[in-house]
Amino acid sequence: MRRPVITARAAATFEPVGRSVAQARAFVRDTLQGWGYGDIVDDAVVLTSELVTNAVVHAGTAADVLCLREESGVRISVADRYPEREIPLQNTGRVLVHPDREGGRGLLLCGALAARWGVEYSPDRKYVWFRLDLPERPAGTRAAGPALPVDALPVADHRVRVAVVQIDRGGCISAWNDDATGLFGYEAEQVVGKPLTDIAAWPHTPGTGTGIAEALRLSRWEGSYGVRGADGRVLPVYASHLRVRDADGEASTVCLLVRDHERAVLQSPTRTPAPDAASQTSRADGRPSDPFEVFIGSPAPDDLDGLLQRTVERARDMLDGDAAYLLLATDDETELEVRASTGLPSARQRFARVPVETGSGRYGSARMPSVHEDLTAVPGAVPLLNGTGMRSVVTVPLKVEGRLTGSLGVAAESAGRYTNEEALHLQFAADRIALAVERARLTELEKLRRGSLSFLVEASDLLAGTLDRDQTLALMAQMTVPTLATWCAVYTVADQASEPELSYVLHEDEDRIDGLKTLLLKVDPPEPVPTPGARVWTAPTDAAHDAALRTSLRSLGLGDSARPSTGPGASLATASAVGGETVVLPLVARNRVIGMLTLGKPTEEHFRQEILELAEDLSRRAALALDNARLYSERTAISQSLQRSLLPPELPDVPNVEVEVIYRAAGEGNEVGGDFYDLFPIRDGAYGFAIGDVCGTGPEAAAVTGLARHALRLLAREGFGGPAVLERLNAAILDEGARSRFLTLLYGELWPQEDGSALLKVVCAGHPLPLRLRQDGSVEPAAEPQPLLGVMDDLELYEQTVTLDPGDVLLCVTDGVTERREGTRMLGDDGLTDVLTMCTGLTAGAVAARVLRAVERFAAEPASDDMAILAMRVPEIPTTTQQ
């Protein structure tokens, strides 16, 4: 077998950086076009791009590209410095590369596109080479169609007339040749100076929006329409328009027209796109290649982002572009969202939104293919490319069953790179991937919706689990960061007349929270607008950028050095943290704006619409939870204030008597229940004390508590004795009617004596008997039981006198102490007596504390009844030592 003769060679080395892939494509394209091998340029560029990507991106080494021109084709090799000896085998039924590997996919393309290919190894390099054969064509031609029998050729008249009509910039005919007269019957002088629209019958195809005036302004245009002849009949013609300008810069359009059935004379031949050509090849196992797999690569990414990123990279390589992007349409097809890009600042563009219809006509809609030869001539024609340095762009729609699902674009830094031919090429690829993209998008949406439902259920549970305002604010922020946003700020509005107040700030980086809070406090808060949905708020971003600029200038000595600075790092970090999109969602509860939920992204990032919709659902739930917490806090504050009014003020100091009180109200949020106590001065040298228990707990019992405590003080200070005080209190309770409650009450009067003892007169109306602890450790009741209050009208009560000697203790408790239960066991009077017996020599405070500890330890469950403990002790008289 004769070795091929090499007639030319070109070589280049590319560094292991991402930009090298584009440089390698340009090198191969320029080399092959210079050799006159334009027919295989596209396939060579695609294969080179994939192999160089494997080298510089995946292997991480420099890539050596060598092009060898041979008599019947070209051989290209790509070498990297990572000689992994893994030779893929063909015709074995094995998958060439593992689906999870990034590298190696170029070998699949080699097998699909190249005539021959292989892998060679040296001690320090791995070479992947492929050979592309030139198509056999007659010598001396650069493009040719296949030889056809005469009966297969298109039919034309005996004389083919090509009308040449020139249109000036005003749309009027300025030139008219003889063939135009022969076709349409008008002499030149009859039509020159008249608008073309006077004789053109332009078809109005629904959905295109392209009129004849717009077609005449395009750089190139081909298509069919009608021309009304001198006889009044409309002649269908096929036209090719070319926009030109003369030496003076005056623009005009040259129109070439033939009869519609002779369109082959003017119609540009359609070049078969490279992926389509590849689809005619067979895989190594003999099965036909899938065009989708050839374009995307096999195996195709199983996630939407991976599929979209692979798509833009393949589209860029296919058209040898400098950048590419893919946008997906929203459900209502009114906007397009950037989901993948290459060669563009993706962080700035990702999830940015542009309208589907940006203007009238075909070139203002994403629903039709379009080619912009020079964006500098039409500023703003493609807003997505503003400021990127791209000059020419071709865009095509992605459609599934006639519905717009997205848009694919390829751009180049030089003008005039793309024509209708490239648009057809790209549209062919877009049609092949549109269904796969839509399936992946729907799968992602389904996963997102499931995740959203789970997120909202969890959020609802967390928000419903607290009625504390501050905790609710913290939960709101913690649920959004970092799940929905990079940072979050919650503003609250006290009432309609109040300004929004910054209540909580959270950033995923805790070191940024202080700087972010400082920044937000310097800007005016967002307006509390009740309109539902997220609205963009630019104030934080603008303020951050201004602060960063001023800090940078001061660090360079160009600003006001007298003003303090936190350093360039802090301001620049804060600007980066809030430099992206910021949105505000109203917190509306019970038809009132009670705050705003502010979400932000870092520099140049945007929110996805699905995330904003999820945030809106969360804001509604959070607003109700926050308002419930507010109402609960207000009512709790009112309740606690009223309850505190039922408790006695600070206990007075009783001469020569230690007094200690412990009070526990059952029920969450209760400070006062059915049990109560009091100690107050009656007159000089006399003090009243009381401990009681109203039947039941909660607010109803607390109401009777207030009545009893205030009545006791008033009646005692009027000079009534113990029995008279309780009898009048009994009458007051019965007067409450249905609101009355049974009341057990121990009331007494205390007179400290000069000898160090204390005299007590007590009345025990249905209450647990007070216990007296003597110095010798004996315990005995200090009163006798009498009827409780609130039951009968006529009571005959009497008081008993008790003297507490120095060292004695009087313990008074409510039934919450004696009736403490653990299963069938109860502490009872005997248990309390046993506890008190062990308190000899303790102070009043220590006695009360030991009783409480015994009650708490008696049962594992929390107490279900109110509890009050009142301990009074007469101190021992200190003895003096005589010298």
TrEMBL record:
SMART domains: GAF, PP2C_SIG. The keyword Transport does not apply. SUPFAM superfamilies: GAF domain-like (SSF55781), PP2C-like (SSF81606), PYP-like sensor domain (PAS domain) (SSF55785). Keywords: Hydrolase. Residues 266-291 are annotated as: Disordered. PROSITE patterns: PAS. Gene3D superfamilies: 3.30.450.40, Histidine kinase-like ATPase, C-terminal domain, PAS domain, PPM-type phosphatase domain. InterPro entries: Bact_Sigma-Reg, GAF, GAF-like_dom_sf, HATPase_C_sf, HATPase_dom, PAS, PAS-like_dom_sf, PAS_fold. The keyword Hydrolase applies. Residues 164-194 form the PAS domain. Signal peptide: none annotated. It comes from the Bacteria. It comes from Streptomyces catenulae. This is SpoIIE family protein phosphatase. Pfam families: GAF (PF01590), GAF_3 (PF13492), HATPase_c_2 (PF13581), PAS (PF00989), SpoIIE (PF07228).
